[in-house]
Amino acid sequence: MRLNRQQRRAVKSLSRGKSLGETYVLAQAAVNLSLGAPMMPEEAERAEAIARHHLGRSWFHGGPSGFCEGFTLLPAGQTGANPRRHVRGHAEDRRRWVFIASDYETAAKYAARIGGTVYEVEPVGPVYADLEEFRSALMVVEQHLEQNPRLAALVSVLSQDEQDAELAKRITQYCCGSAKVVSVAAEVG
Protein backbone atom coordinates (compact mmCIF):
# COMPACT_ATOMS: atom_id res chain seq x y z
CA MET A 1 0.00 0.00 0.00
CA ARG A 2 1.21 3.46 -0.79
CA LEU A 3 0.06 6.72 0.62
CA ASN A 4 -2.40 8.62 -1.48
CA ARG A 5 -1.16 11.39 -3.75
CA GLN A 6 -2.13 14.16 -1.34
CA GLN A 7 -0.22 12.58 1.56
CA ARG A 8 2.85 11.99 -0.62
CA ARG A 9 2.84 15.58 -1.87
CA ALA A 10 2.51 16.89 1.67
CA VAL A 11 5.50 14.86 2.89
CA LYS A 12 7.51 15.84 -0.18
CA SER A 13 6.88 19.57 0.24
CA LEU A 14 7.41 19.50 4.01
CA SER A 15 10.67 17.55 3.75
CA ARG A 16 12.49 19.79 1.26
CA GLY A 17 15.78 20.81 2.81
CA LYS A 18 15.22 18.61 5.85
CA SER A 19 17.66 16.07 7.22
CA LEU A 20 17.11 12.36 6.70
CA GLY A 21 15.94 12.07 10.32
CA GLU A 22 13.41 14.89 9.95
CA THR A 23 12.13 13.38 6.71
CA TYR A 24 11.71 10.03 8.46
CA VAL A 25 9.62 11.66 11.20
CA LEU A 26 7.38 13.30 8.58
CA ALA A 27 7.03 10.02 6.70
CA GLN A 28 6.21 8.19 9.93
CA ALA A 29 3.47 10.73 10.66
CA ALA A 30 2.01 10.27 7.17
CA VAL A 31 2.13 6.49 7.51
CA ASN A 32 0.36 6.72 10.87
CA LEU A 33 -2.50 8.43 9.05
CA SER A 34 -2.87 5.35 6.85
CA LEU A 35 -2.60 2.68 9.55
CA GLY A 36 -6.07 1.40 8.90
CA ALA A 37 -4.80 -0.26 5.74
CA PRO A 38 -3.56 -3.83 6.28
CA MET A 39 -0.39 -5.19 4.73
CA MET A 40 -0.94 -5.77 1.03
CA PRO A 41 0.40 -8.97 -0.64
CA GLU A 42 3.14 -7.10 -2.54
CA GLU A 43 4.19 -5.37 0.69
CA ALA A 44 4.25 -8.68 2.55
CA GLU A 45 6.57 -10.19 -0.04
CA ARG A 46 9.05 -7.30 0.19
CA ALA A 47 8.75 -7.04 4.01
CA GLU A 48 9.56 -10.75 4.30
CA ALA A 49 12.54 -10.39 1.94
CA ILE A 50 13.93 -7.59 4.11
CA ALA A 51 13.50 -9.67 7.28
CA ARG A 52 15.43 -12.57 5.71
CA HIS A 53 18.56 -10.45 6.00
CA HIS A 54 18.40 -11.04 9.76
CA LEU A 55 18.29 -14.86 9.57
CA GLY A 56 20.60 -16.51 12.07
CA ARG A 57 20.64 -13.47 14.35
CA SER A 58 18.94 -12.98 17.69
CA TRP A 59 15.45 -11.52 17.88
CA PHE A 60 14.02 -9.67 20.88
CA HIS A 61 10.57 -8.82 22.24
CA GLY A 62 9.78 -6.11 24.78
CA GLY A 63 6.67 -7.05 26.69
CA PRO A 64 5.09 -7.68 30.08
CA SER A 65 7.11 -9.50 32.72
CA GLY A 66 6.41 -13.06 33.77
CA PHE A 67 7.10 -15.16 30.68
CA CYS A 68 9.61 -17.99 30.95
CA GLU A 69 11.74 -19.95 28.53
CA GLY A 70 9.58 -21.97 26.13
CA PHE A 71 6.52 -19.71 26.50
CA THR A 72 4.79 -18.96 23.19
CA LEU A 73 3.97 -15.31 22.58
CA LEU A 74 0.71 -14.93 20.65
CA PRO A 75 -0.80 -11.90 18.89
CA ALA A 76 -2.96 -9.52 20.92
CA GLY A 77 -5.96 -10.50 18.82
CA GLN A 78 -5.71 -14.06 20.16
CA THR A 79 -4.92 -13.24 23.77
CA GLY A 80 -7.23 -10.25 24.22
CA ALA A 81 -4.31 -8.08 25.32
CA ASN A 82 -4.05 -4.57 24.00
CA PRO A 83 -0.53 -3.36 24.75
CA ARG A 84 -0.95 -0.26 22.61
CA ARG A 85 -4.38 0.78 23.86
CA HIS A 86 -2.93 4.23 24.53
CA VAL A 87 -2.34 4.77 20.79
CA ARG A 88 -5.33 6.58 19.35
CA GLY A 89 -6.59 5.23 16.04
CA HIS A 90 -4.46 2.11 16.34
CA ALA A 91 -5.15 -0.26 13.45
CA GLU A 92 -6.98 -3.47 14.23
CA ASP A 93 -4.78 -5.28 11.69
CA ARG A 94 -1.79 -4.87 14.02
CA ARG A 95 -3.48 -7.07 16.62
CA ARG A 96 -2.76 -10.16 14.50
CA TRP A 97 1.02 -9.94 14.94
CA VAL A 98 3.66 -10.48 17.59
CA PHE A 99 6.17 -7.65 17.33
CA ILE A 100 9.86 -8.41 17.59
CA ALA A 101 13.03 -6.40 17.15
CA SER A 102 16.31 -7.09 15.42
CA ASP A 103 18.16 -5.35 18.27
CA TYR A 104 17.93 -5.34 22.04
CA GLU A 105 17.61 -1.54 22.30
CA THR A 106 14.39 -1.38 20.28
CA ALA A 107 12.76 -4.12 22.38
CA ALA A 108 13.94 -2.39 25.57
CA LYS A 109 12.09 0.80 24.56
CA TYR A 110 8.81 -1.11 24.33
CA ALA A 111 9.43 -2.99 27.58
CA ALA A 112 10.24 0.29 29.36
CA ARG A 113 6.87 1.78 28.34
CA ILE A 114 5.06 -0.83 30.40
CA GLY A 115 7.69 -1.60 33.03
CA GLY A 116 8.21 -5.01 31.45
CA THR A 117 10.93 -7.34 30.29
CA VAL A 118 13.07 -7.91 27.22
CA TYR A 119 13.02 -11.48 25.97
CA GLU A 120 15.21 -13.17 23.40
CA VAL A 121 12.74 -14.95 21.12
CA GLU A 122 12.59 -17.31 18.19
CA PRO A 123 9.94 -16.35 15.61
CA VAL A 124 7.49 -19.06 14.57
CA GLY A 125 6.66 -18.81 10.87
CA PRO A 126 7.55 -16.01 8.48
CA VAL A 127 8.97 -12.72 9.76
CA TYR A 128 8.06 -9.40 8.13
CA ALA A 129 9.41 -5.89 8.48
CA ASP A 130 6.91 -3.97 10.65
CA LEU A 131 4.44 -2.26 8.35
CA GLU A 132 4.77 1.18 9.96
CA GLU A 133 8.56 1.22 9.76
CA PHE A 134 8.60 -0.48 6.35
CA ARG A 135 6.28 2.07 4.74
CA SER A 136 8.14 4.98 6.33
CA ALA A 137 11.54 3.69 5.20
CA LEU A 138 10.37 3.23 1.62
CA MET A 139 8.88 6.70 1.56
CA VAL A 140 12.08 8.29 2.89
CA VAL A 141 14.26 6.42 0.42
CA GLU A 142 12.00 7.39 -2.47
CA GLN A 143 12.00 11.03 -1.35
CA HIS A 144 15.80 11.18 -1.12
CA LEU A 145 16.26 9.49 -4.47
CA GLU A 146 13.95 12.04 -6.10
CA GLN A 147 15.97 14.87 -4.56
CA ASN A 148 19.38 13.41 -5.42
CA PRO A 149 19.71 12.12 -9.01
CA ARG A 150 23.34 11.02 -8.47
CA LEU A 151 22.29 8.85 -5.55
CA ALA A 152 19.39 7.49 -7.61
CA ALA A 153 21.85 6.50 -10.35
CA LEU A 154 23.99 4.63 -7.81
CA VAL A 155 21.01 2.85 -6.28
CA SER A 156 19.62 1.88 -9.69
CA VAL A 157 22.53 -0.55 -10.23
CA LEU A 158 21.79 -2.40 -6.99
CA SER A 159 19.77 -5.59 -7.18
CA GLN A 160 16.49 -5.81 -5.25
CA ASP A 161 18.25 -8.06 -2.72
CA GLU A 162 21.03 -5.49 -2.20
CA GLN A 163 18.44 -2.75 -1.73
CA ASP A 164 16.58 -4.92 0.78
CA ALA A 165 19.85 -5.57 2.67
CA GLU A 166 20.34 -1.81 3.02
CA LEU A 167 16.77 -1.36 4.26
CA ALA A 168 17.26 -4.22 6.74
CA LYS A 169 20.13 -2.26 8.31
CA ARG A 170 17.74 0.60 9.06
CA ILE A 171 14.56 -1.24 10.02
CA THR A 172 14.61 -2.63 13.56
CA GLN A 173 10.93 -3.50 14.10
CA TYR A 174 9.50 -6.73 12.69
CA CYS A 175 6.45 -8.93 13.19
CA CYS A 176 5.53 -12.60 13.04
CA GLY A 177 2.55 -14.84 13.78
CA SER A 178 3.96 -16.01 17.13
CA ALA A 179 7.32 -16.37 18.88
CA LYS A 180 8.85 -18.69 21.48
CA VAL A 181 10.75 -17.21 24.41
CA VAL A 182 14.35 -18.44 24.27
CA SER A 183 15.52 -16.57 27.37
CA VAL A 184 14.79 -13.61 29.61
CA ALA A 185 17.28 -10.98 28.44
CA ALA A 186 16.58 -8.31 31.09
CA GLU A 187 13.93 -6.93 33.42
CA VAL A 188 13.44 -3.31 32.38
CA GLY A 189 10.70 -2.22 34.77
Would you mind describing this structure in some detail?
The chain is an alpha+beta fold. The protein folds into two domains: 1-34 and 131-170, no CATH class; 41-129 and 174-189, no CATH class. It is built from eight helices and five strands. It has helices at residues 5-15, 20-33, 41-51, 76-79, 104-114, 131-147, 149-156, 160-170, and strands at 59-63, 72-73, 98-101, 117-129, 173-187. Strands 1, 2, 3, 4 and 5 form a five-stranded antiparallel sheet that branches. α1 (5-15) runs antiparallel to α2, α2 packs across α6 and α3 (41-51) packs across α8. The longest helix is centred in the C-terminal third of the chain and has 17 residues, at 131-147.
The mean pLDDT is 81
Q: How much strand?
A: 15-25%
- Counting structural domains, the number is 2
Oligomer: single chain
The computed structural class is alpha+beta
Q: Order of helices and strands, N to C?
A: HHHEEHEHEHHHE
From the alpha carbons, calculate the radius of gyration and give it in angstroms.
Answer: 17 Å
Tally of alpha and pi helices: 8
Largest sheet: 5 strands, antiparallel
Unreliable sequence segments: none
Q: What distance lies between the first and last C-alpha atoms, to the nearest angstrom?
A: 36 Å
Share of residues in helices: 40-55%
Task: Give the SSE map.
Blueprint (H helix, E strand, L loop, with lengths): L4 H11 L4 H14 L7 H11 L7 E5 L8 E2 L2 H4 L18 E4 L2 H11 L2 E13 L1 H17 L1 H8 L3 H11 L2 E15 L2
Antiparallel strand pairs: 1-4, 2-5, 3-5, 4-5
Helix pairs in contact: 1-2, 2-6, 3-8, 6-7
